[in-house]
Design goal:
Number of domains: 2
Mean pLDDT: 96
CATH topology of the largest domain: Rossmann fold
Number of helices: 10
Largest sheet: 7 strands, mixed
Distance between the termini: 45 Å
Number of strands: 16
Radius of gyration: 22 Å
Low-confidence stretches: none
Order of helices and strands: HHEEEHEEHEEEEHEHEHEHEHEHEE
Strand content: 25-35%
Oligomer: single chain
CATH class of the largest domain: Alpha Beta
Shape: globular
Structural class: alpha/beta
Length: about 375
Protein backbone atom coordinates (compact mmCIF):
# COMPACT_ATOMS: atom_id res chain seq x y z
CA UNK A 1 0.00 0.00 0.00
CA UNK A 2 1.28 3.48 -0.89
CA UNK A 3 1.20 6.30 1.66
CA UNK A 4 2.43 9.80 0.89
CA UNK A 5 2.99 10.56 4.58
CA UNK A 6 5.20 7.50 4.98
CA UNK A 7 7.10 8.18 1.76
CA UNK A 8 7.80 11.74 2.94
CA UNK A 9 8.99 10.48 6.33
CA UNK A 10 6.22 12.34 8.12
CA UNK A 11 4.53 9.31 9.70
CA UNK A 12 6.09 5.96 10.59
CA UNK A 13 3.17 4.36 12.43
CA UNK A 14 2.79 1.71 9.70
CA UNK A 15 6.38 0.47 9.87
CA UNK A 16 5.78 -2.52 7.57
CA UNK A 17 3.77 -0.69 4.91
CA UNK A 18 6.41 -1.29 2.21
CA UNK A 19 6.07 -5.07 2.56
CA UNK A 20 3.30 -7.02 0.78
CA UNK A 21 0.65 -8.23 3.21
CA UNK A 22 1.59 -11.85 2.42
CA UNK A 23 5.12 -11.22 3.71
CA UNK A 24 3.77 -9.38 6.74
CA UNK A 25 1.59 -12.39 7.59
CA UNK A 26 4.54 -14.77 7.17
CA UNK A 27 6.67 -12.69 9.51
CA UNK A 28 3.92 -12.59 12.12
CA UNK A 29 3.39 -16.35 11.89
CA UNK A 30 7.15 -16.91 12.30
CA UNK A 31 7.13 -14.68 15.37
CA UNK A 32 4.21 -16.55 16.91
CA UNK A 33 5.73 -19.96 16.14
CA UNK A 34 9.02 -18.90 17.73
CA UNK A 35 7.23 -17.68 20.85
CA UNK A 36 5.43 -21.03 21.20
CA UNK A 37 8.39 -23.19 20.14
CA UNK A 38 8.76 -24.67 23.64
CA UNK A 39 5.01 -25.32 23.87
CA UNK A 40 3.96 -27.96 21.30
CA UNK A 41 0.93 -26.96 19.22
CA UNK A 42 -1.34 -29.70 17.88
CA UNK A 43 -2.96 -27.63 15.11
CA UNK A 44 -1.96 -24.36 13.45
CA UNK A 45 -4.99 -22.77 11.80
CA UNK A 46 -4.57 -20.56 8.73
CA UNK A 47 -4.09 -16.86 9.62
CA UNK A 48 -7.00 -14.49 9.08
CA UNK A 49 -6.57 -11.08 7.45
CA UNK A 50 -8.79 -8.29 6.17
CA UNK A 51 -8.56 -5.15 4.00
CA UNK A 52 -5.20 -3.41 3.63
CA UNK A 53 -6.67 0.08 3.96
CA UNK A 54 -9.82 1.85 5.11
CA UNK A 55 -10.33 -0.78 7.81
CA UNK A 56 -10.28 1.30 10.99
CA UNK A 57 -13.60 2.10 12.65
CA UNK A 58 -12.13 4.79 14.90
CA UNK A 59 -9.80 7.76 14.83
CA UNK A 60 -7.99 9.27 17.80
CA UNK A 61 -6.83 12.70 16.69
CA UNK A 62 -4.60 15.08 18.62
CA UNK A 63 -5.84 18.64 17.99
CA UNK A 64 -3.10 21.22 17.48
CA UNK A 65 -2.49 24.39 15.48
CA UNK A 66 -4.75 27.40 16.02
CA UNK A 67 -8.47 27.85 16.49
CA UNK A 68 -8.67 29.28 12.96
CA UNK A 69 -6.46 26.57 11.40
CA UNK A 70 -6.61 23.44 13.53
CA UNK A 71 -4.60 20.34 12.68
CA UNK A 72 -6.03 16.89 13.42
CA UNK A 73 -3.53 14.07 13.77
CA UNK A 74 -0.53 13.57 15.99
CA UNK A 75 2.47 15.29 17.54
CA UNK A 76 6.00 14.20 16.74
CA UNK A 77 8.43 13.69 19.60
CA UNK A 78 9.78 17.20 19.12
CA UNK A 79 6.25 18.62 19.43
CA UNK A 80 5.67 19.44 15.77
CA UNK A 81 2.17 18.51 14.57
CA UNK A 82 1.21 16.24 11.68
CA UNK A 83 -2.22 16.31 10.04
CA UNK A 84 -3.48 12.75 9.50
CA UNK A 85 -6.94 13.41 8.07
CA UNK A 86 -5.85 11.84 4.77
CA UNK A 87 -4.52 8.65 6.40
CA UNK A 88 -5.38 5.63 4.22
CA UNK A 89 -6.28 3.51 7.25
CA UNK A 90 -9.47 5.54 7.74
CA UNK A 91 -12.55 4.79 5.62
CA UNK A 92 -13.73 7.37 3.08
CA UNK A 93 -16.68 8.18 5.35
CA UNK A 94 -14.32 9.91 7.82
CA UNK A 95 -13.21 12.60 5.33
CA UNK A 96 -16.41 14.73 5.41
CA UNK A 97 -16.43 14.55 9.21
CA UNK A 98 -12.87 15.84 9.47
CA UNK A 99 -13.68 18.53 6.89
CA UNK A 100 -16.67 19.79 8.91
CA UNK A 101 -14.89 19.62 12.25
CA UNK A 102 -12.15 22.06 11.28
CA UNK A 103 -14.49 25.06 10.75
CA UNK A 104 -16.63 23.91 13.68
CA UNK A 105 -13.67 24.25 16.03
CA UNK A 106 -13.48 27.93 15.08
CA UNK A 107 -17.27 28.39 15.36
CA UNK A 108 -17.25 26.95 18.87
CA UNK A 109 -14.11 28.83 19.90
CA UNK A 110 -12.34 25.63 20.95
CA UNK A 111 -8.71 26.67 21.19
CA UNK A 112 -6.43 23.67 20.57
CA UNK A 113 -4.43 22.68 23.62
CA UNK A 114 -0.77 23.69 23.46
CA UNK A 115 1.32 21.09 25.27
CA UNK A 116 4.41 23.28 25.67
CA UNK A 117 2.48 26.25 27.05
CA UNK A 118 -0.12 24.18 28.93
CA UNK A 119 -2.82 26.44 27.49
CA UNK A 120 -5.93 25.88 25.40
CA UNK A 121 -8.99 23.66 25.76
CA UNK A 122 -9.44 21.09 22.97
CA UNK A 123 -7.02 18.17 23.35
CA UNK A 124 -8.40 15.32 21.25
CA UNK A 125 -11.20 14.34 18.89
CA UNK A 126 -12.29 10.70 19.12
CA UNK A 127 -14.45 9.40 16.27
CA UNK A 128 -16.00 5.92 16.04
CA UNK A 129 -18.16 4.53 13.22
CA UNK A 130 -20.70 1.71 13.34
CA UNK A 131 -20.50 -0.81 10.51
CA UNK A 132 -24.17 -1.61 11.09
CA UNK A 133 -25.70 1.64 9.85
CA UNK A 134 -22.90 4.19 9.43
CA UNK A 135 -23.82 6.02 12.62
CA UNK A 136 -20.96 7.73 14.41
CA UNK A 137 -19.89 8.67 17.93
CA UNK A 138 -17.88 11.86 18.33
CA UNK A 139 -16.14 12.77 21.57
CA UNK A 140 -14.48 16.11 22.32
CA UNK A 141 -11.73 15.79 24.94
CA UNK A 142 -11.45 19.14 26.72
CA UNK A 143 -9.13 20.38 29.45
CA UNK A 144 -12.04 21.86 31.42
CA UNK A 145 -15.73 22.76 31.17
CA UNK A 146 -14.89 26.40 30.41
CA UNK A 147 -15.96 26.18 26.73
CA UNK A 148 -18.76 23.68 27.22
CA UNK A 149 -21.65 26.13 26.73
CA UNK A 150 -20.01 27.61 23.62
CA UNK A 151 -19.73 24.10 22.22
CA UNK A 152 -23.40 23.39 22.99
CA UNK A 153 -24.47 26.61 21.29
CA UNK A 154 -22.55 25.81 18.10
CA UNK A 155 -23.53 22.14 18.00
CA UNK A 156 -26.74 22.46 15.90
CA UNK A 157 -24.64 23.64 12.95
CA UNK A 158 -22.41 20.56 13.18
CA UNK A 159 -25.38 18.21 13.51
CA UNK A 160 -26.98 19.76 10.42
CA UNK A 161 -23.76 19.15 8.49
CA UNK A 162 -23.26 15.62 9.84
CA UNK A 163 -26.56 13.88 10.69
CA UNK A 164 -24.64 10.60 11.03
CA UNK A 165 -23.32 11.83 14.41
CA UNK A 166 -25.79 9.95 16.60
CA UNK A 167 -23.73 10.12 19.81
CA UNK A 168 -21.81 13.25 20.81
CA UNK A 169 -20.12 13.80 24.15
CA UNK A 170 -17.47 15.80 25.94
CA UNK A 171 -14.79 14.16 28.04
CA UNK A 172 -12.98 16.27 30.62
CA UNK A 173 -9.26 15.51 30.89
CA UNK A 174 -7.61 18.18 33.10
CA UNK A 175 -4.25 16.46 33.61
CA UNK A 176 -1.20 17.76 31.73
CA UNK A 177 -0.03 14.31 30.65
CA UNK A 178 -0.34 12.08 27.59
CA UNK A 179 -3.57 10.54 28.91
CA UNK A 180 -6.26 10.23 26.27
CA UNK A 181 -9.34 10.78 28.46
CA UNK A 182 -10.53 11.61 31.95
CA UNK A 183 -13.21 10.14 34.17
CA UNK A 184 -15.99 12.67 33.52
CA UNK A 185 -18.16 12.24 30.41
CA UNK A 186 -20.87 14.77 29.49
CA UNK A 187 -23.36 13.70 26.82
CA UNK A 188 -24.61 16.29 24.33
CA UNK A 189 -27.09 13.94 22.63
CA UNK A 190 -29.96 11.90 23.99
CA UNK A 191 -28.45 8.72 22.57
CA UNK A 192 -25.48 7.57 24.64
CA UNK A 193 -24.39 4.36 22.90
CA UNK A 194 -23.56 3.51 19.30
CA UNK A 195 -25.34 0.45 17.93
CA UNK A 196 -23.14 -2.14 16.23
CA UNK A 197 -23.61 -5.73 15.04
CA UNK A 198 -21.12 -8.52 14.34
CA UNK A 199 -22.34 -11.82 12.91
CA UNK A 200 -25.92 -11.01 13.85
CA UNK A 201 -24.96 -10.29 17.47
CA UNK A 202 -26.00 -6.80 18.65
CA UNK A 203 -23.19 -4.89 20.32
CA UNK A 204 -23.04 -1.41 21.82
CA UNK A 205 -20.18 1.07 21.92
CA UNK A 206 -20.16 3.62 24.73
CA UNK A 207 -17.52 6.18 25.66
CA UNK A 208 -14.77 4.72 27.83
CA UNK A 209 -15.48 1.14 26.78
CA UNK A 210 -12.94 -0.79 24.70
CA UNK A 211 -13.97 -1.90 21.22
CA UNK A 212 -11.87 -3.50 18.48
CA UNK A 213 -10.58 -1.10 15.81
CA UNK A 214 -10.73 -3.54 12.86
CA UNK A 215 -14.35 -4.76 12.60
CA UNK A 216 -13.78 -7.05 9.60
CA UNK A 217 -11.15 -9.12 11.38
CA UNK A 218 -12.77 -8.75 14.81
CA UNK A 219 -16.01 -10.29 13.54
CA UNK A 220 -14.02 -13.30 12.30
CA UNK A 221 -12.23 -13.55 15.65
CA UNK A 222 -15.52 -13.68 17.55
CA UNK A 223 -17.03 -16.14 15.08
CA UNK A 224 -14.01 -18.44 15.44
CA UNK A 225 -14.27 -18.41 19.24
CA UNK A 226 -17.99 -19.21 18.90
CA UNK A 227 -17.26 -22.18 16.64
CA UNK A 228 -14.55 -23.52 18.97
CA UNK A 229 -16.75 -23.23 22.07
CA UNK A 230 -19.84 -24.76 20.50
CA UNK A 231 -17.83 -27.79 19.41
CA UNK A 232 -17.02 -28.49 23.09
CA UNK A 233 -19.19 -29.82 25.94
CA UNK A 234 -19.65 -26.45 27.65
CA UNK A 235 -22.64 -25.74 29.89
CA UNK A 236 -20.95 -23.18 32.15
CA UNK A 237 -18.48 -20.54 30.95
CA UNK A 238 -16.57 -17.55 32.30
CA UNK A 239 -15.66 -14.65 30.00
CA UNK A 240 -12.91 -12.74 31.83
CA UNK A 241 -11.75 -9.27 30.71
CA UNK A 242 -14.93 -9.40 28.63
CA UNK A 243 -15.14 -5.77 27.44
CA UNK A 244 -18.53 -5.14 25.81
CA UNK A 245 -19.15 -8.89 25.75
CA UNK A 246 -18.18 -9.70 22.17
CA UNK A 247 -16.82 -13.18 22.93
CA UNK A 248 -19.40 -14.23 25.50
CA UNK A 249 -22.36 -13.00 23.47
CA UNK A 250 -21.14 -14.94 20.43
CA UNK A 251 -20.43 -18.14 22.36
CA UNK A 252 -23.55 -18.24 24.55
CA UNK A 253 -26.57 -20.42 23.90
CA UNK A 254 -29.94 -20.20 25.67
CA UNK A 255 -28.99 -23.23 27.79
CA UNK A 256 -25.46 -22.11 28.68
CA UNK A 257 -24.69 -20.34 31.96
CA UNK A 258 -22.17 -17.57 31.37
CA UNK A 259 -20.58 -14.93 33.59
CA UNK A 260 -18.73 -11.99 32.00
CA UNK A 261 -16.32 -9.92 34.08
CA UNK A 262 -14.83 -6.54 33.12
CA UNK A 263 -13.54 -3.78 35.37
CA UNK A 264 -15.05 -0.94 33.27
CA UNK A 265 -18.71 -0.24 34.20
CA UNK A 266 -19.42 1.36 30.81
CA UNK A 267 -18.42 -1.85 29.02
CA UNK A 268 -20.60 -3.94 31.34
CA UNK A 269 -23.57 -1.68 30.59
CA UNK A 270 -23.05 -2.41 26.87
CA UNK A 271 -22.77 -6.16 27.40
CA UNK A 272 -25.89 -6.27 29.57
CA UNK A 273 -27.87 -4.32 26.98
CA UNK A 274 -26.81 -6.80 24.27
CA UNK A 275 -27.74 -9.84 26.37
CA UNK A 276 -31.20 -8.38 26.95
CA UNK A 277 -31.65 -7.74 23.22
CA UNK A 278 -30.74 -11.37 22.50
CA UNK A 279 -33.13 -12.64 25.17
CA UNK A 280 -30.33 -14.59 26.91
CA UNK A 281 -31.28 -14.82 30.59
CA UNK A 282 -28.43 -17.04 31.80
CA UNK A 283 -25.80 -14.38 30.98
CA UNK A 284 -24.59 -12.25 33.87
CA UNK A 285 -22.11 -9.40 33.40
CA UNK A 286 -20.41 -7.73 36.36
CA UNK A 287 -18.03 -4.78 36.72
CA UNK A 288 -15.24 -6.40 38.74
CA UNK A 289 -11.52 -7.10 38.57
CA UNK A 290 -11.22 -10.38 36.65
CA UNK A 291 -8.46 -11.86 38.82
CA UNK A 292 -10.22 -10.98 42.08
CA UNK A 293 -13.48 -12.43 40.78
CA UNK A 294 -11.94 -15.70 39.62
CA UNK A 295 -9.92 -16.35 42.77
CA UNK A 296 -12.99 -15.79 44.98
CA UNK A 297 -15.14 -18.42 43.29
CA UNK A 298 -15.75 -21.93 44.50
CA UNK A 299 -17.31 -23.54 41.45
CA UNK A 300 -15.38 -24.65 38.37
CA UNK A 301 -16.77 -23.70 34.92
CA UNK A 302 -16.37 -25.95 31.91
CA UNK A 303 -14.50 -23.24 30.02
CA UNK A 304 -12.72 -20.01 30.91
CA UNK A 305 -12.17 -17.49 28.10
CA UNK A 306 -9.65 -14.73 28.83
CA UNK A 307 -9.05 -11.64 26.71
CA UNK A 308 -6.62 -9.58 28.82
CA UNK A 309 -4.83 -6.31 28.02
CA UNK A 310 -1.27 -6.45 26.71
CA UNK A 311 0.17 -7.31 30.12
CA UNK A 312 -1.52 -10.73 30.03
CA UNK A 313 -3.40 -12.49 32.84
CA UNK A 314 -0.39 -12.71 35.16
CA UNK A 315 1.03 -15.24 37.59
CA UNK A 316 -1.75 -15.04 40.18
CA UNK A 317 -4.57 -15.88 37.79
CA UNK A 318 -2.46 -18.54 36.03
CA UNK A 319 -1.76 -20.21 39.36
CA UNK A 320 -5.43 -20.17 40.26
CA UNK A 321 -6.52 -21.55 36.88
CA UNK A 322 -3.98 -24.35 37.27
CA UNK A 323 -5.45 -25.29 40.66
CA UNK A 324 -9.07 -24.84 39.57
CA UNK A 325 -8.34 -26.82 36.37
CA UNK A 326 -11.31 -26.08 34.08
CA UNK A 327 -11.46 -28.60 31.21
CA UNK A 328 -10.91 -25.85 28.61
CA UNK A 329 -9.31 -22.40 28.42
CA UNK A 330 -9.49 -20.09 25.40
CA UNK A 331 -6.89 -17.34 25.45
CA UNK A 332 -7.36 -14.30 23.17
CA UNK A 333 -4.33 -12.03 23.15
CA UNK A 334 -3.07 -8.85 21.52
CA UNK A 335 0.44 -9.60 22.87
CA UNK A 336 1.67 -13.08 22.04
CA UNK A 337 4.77 -12.64 24.22
CA UNK A 338 2.80 -12.28 27.44
CA UNK A 339 0.38 -14.98 26.27
CA UNK A 340 3.27 -17.43 25.80
CA UNK A 341 4.58 -16.56 29.27
CA UNK A 342 1.13 -17.17 30.76
CA UNK A 343 0.64 -20.50 28.97
CA UNK A 344 4.03 -21.65 30.30
CA UNK A 345 2.53 -21.09 33.78
CA UNK A 346 -0.29 -23.54 32.94
CA UNK A 347 1.64 -26.82 32.83
CA UNK A 348 -1.44 -29.03 33.08
CA UNK A 349 -2.71 -27.92 29.65
CA UNK A 350 -1.90 -28.79 26.06
CA UNK A 351 -2.32 -26.37 23.15
CA UNK A 352 -4.98 -27.89 20.91
CA UNK A 353 -5.04 -25.14 18.29
CA UNK A 354 -3.78 -21.64 17.55
CA UNK A 355 -4.96 -19.05 15.03
CA UNK A 356 -3.48 -15.66 14.17
CA UNK A 357 -5.73 -12.69 13.30
CA UNK A 358 -4.10 -9.76 11.49
CA UNK A 359 -5.96 -7.02 13.30
CA UNK A 360 -3.19 -4.46 12.71
CA UNK A 361 -1.90 -4.55 9.10
CA UNK A 362 1.41 -2.84 8.27
CA UNK A 363 2.67 -3.25 11.86
CA UNK A 364 4.30 -6.06 13.82
CA UNK A 365 1.22 -6.39 16.03
CA UNK A 366 -1.41 -9.10 15.71
CA UNK A 367 -4.14 -10.87 17.67
CA UNK A 368 -4.05 -14.58 18.45
CA UNK A 369 -6.63 -17.12 19.65
CA UNK A 370 -5.49 -20.26 21.48
CA UNK A 371 -7.44 -23.27 22.73
CA UNK A 372 -5.98 -25.05 25.77
CA UNK A 373 -7.25 -28.46 26.86
CA UNK A 374 -6.71 -30.00 30.30
CA UNK A 375 -4.40 -33.02 30.07
Amino acid sequence: MQCALFDAGRCRSCQWIEQPVSLQLSAKMNDLQNLLAELPVEAWCAPVSGPEQGFRNKAKMVVSGSVEKPLLGMLHRDGTPEDLTSCSLYPASFAPVFAALKPFIARAGLTPYNVARKRGELKYLLLTESQQDGGMMLRFVLRSEEKLEQLRAALPWLQAQLPQLTVISVNIQPVHMAIMEGEKEIFLTEQQALAESFNGVPLWIRPQSFFQTNPTVASQLYATARDWVRALPVAHMWDLFCGVGGFGLHCATPEMRLTGIEIAPEAIACATQSAQALGLHNLHFQALDSTQFATAQGDVPDLVLVNPPRRGIGAQLCEYLSRMAPPFIIYSSCNATTMANDIARLPGYRIARVQLFDMFPHTAHYEVLTLLVKQ
